[in-house]
Structure formats: C-alpha cells, structure tokens
Amino acid sequence: MKPRATWNKLIQLILVAVLYAVEKANSLKCYSCKGPDDGRPYPQSICENEETEVTCTSKNNTVMACGKYHHEIMSGVLLHEVEARDCIPEKDCYWIGMSCRAIILAGGECEHSCCYEDLCNNVSPLTSDKLLIAGAYVCAIVYVYQLTKGY
C-alpha cells in the first residue's frame, strides 16, 4: 500500500472518531436521582434504587456534564447522608466542589465528580468511552506502522 493511501486511511479513522465524539457531546446521557429539597437524608442505597437515565438538555449552548455528589456529616447523634446524580451545567461543577469543601471543613465527608461520557456518573472509569477511543487510536497507529514497514 502506498504511503499516501495509508495517510488517507488514518485521516478517515481520526475523522470517524471525531464525529463520534461530537455526536456523543450532543446527546449526553446521565443517571439521575435527587432526594427531597427539604434537607432530609437521601442515602446512596436509595439513590441507586431510584435512579433513572436522562438525556441532558442544554440551554443557550451550555456545556453539560454528568454530576455526582455524596456527603456524610454527623448532625448530633445522627449521620446525615445525601447522594445526588444528574445532568448539570459544566460551570456548576466548581460550585459543587465549593459545597463539598464546606462539608469537609464542618467535619464531614464529601465527594463529587463531573464527567462527560454517557452514564459516567455511576460506572468505573475503566469502562468509559475514553478507554475505547484510546484503544482504537493505538490500533490505528500500530496498523499504520506495520503498513509503512511492510509487515
């Protein structure tokens, strides 16, 4: 195979990966579970049982993310636990982090995350689309290398 044909195939592979990423960004799906807004506890176990899949909708071209928030803090002799997952505007990730800092400063435990792959707010990072795309790039590079060396 000629070097020019090899580069054309590599460009096609990269173009497919980019188009896939753009399509994913326009239809982000997240797990959603939100407890009551009155401050009552909403443990992780209940959240996991009540979670649903939602497709994020963006207003004014706002970048959306899948968010996950969990805190535990003692209130007197009771442990107050809250878990929430949902589509959120990317800019809110910062403010959720600030909320976590306040919980930690008050002696509690808090974790939060924002991610950008479908249903990433409830799965191991190793099963995300990033790993799949990275693997595809590695395969493409090895393939092109083998073609240029005549294997």
CATH superfamily: CD59
SSE ordering:
HEHEEEHEH
Helix share of residues? 40-55%
Write down the overall mean pLDDT: 79
Number of H/I helices: 4
Rg on CA atoms, Å: 21 Å
CATH class: Mainly Beta
Distance between the termini: 11 Å
Question: Structural class of the helices, strands and pairings?
Answer: alpha+beta
| CATH architecture classification | Ribbon
Unreliable runs, pLDDT <50, ≥5 residues? 124-128
User: Going across the major beta sheet, what is the strand order?
Assistant: 4-3-5
Number of strands: 5
Helices, strands, pairings?
Blueprint: H1 3-26, E1 29-32, H2 44-50, E2 52-55, E3 64-75, E4 78-89, H3 92-105, E5 109-115, H4 129-149
Antiparallel strand pairs: 1-2, 3-4, 3-5
Helix pairs in contact: 1-4
In brief, what are we looking at here?
The protein has helices at residues 3-26, 44-50, 92-105, 129-149; strands at 29-32, 52-55, 64-75, 78-89, 109-115. The protein is an alpha+beta fold. It has one domain: CD59, CATH 2.10.60.
Explain what this protein looks like in three dimensions.
- It is built from four helices and five strands.
- It has 151 residues and is α+β, with helices and mostly antiparallel strands.
- The strands form two sheets. A three-stranded antiparallel sheet has the order 4-3-5, covered by helices on one side. The protein has a two-stranded antiparallel sheet with strand order 1-2.
- α1 packs antiparallel against α4.
- About 3% of the residues have low confidence.
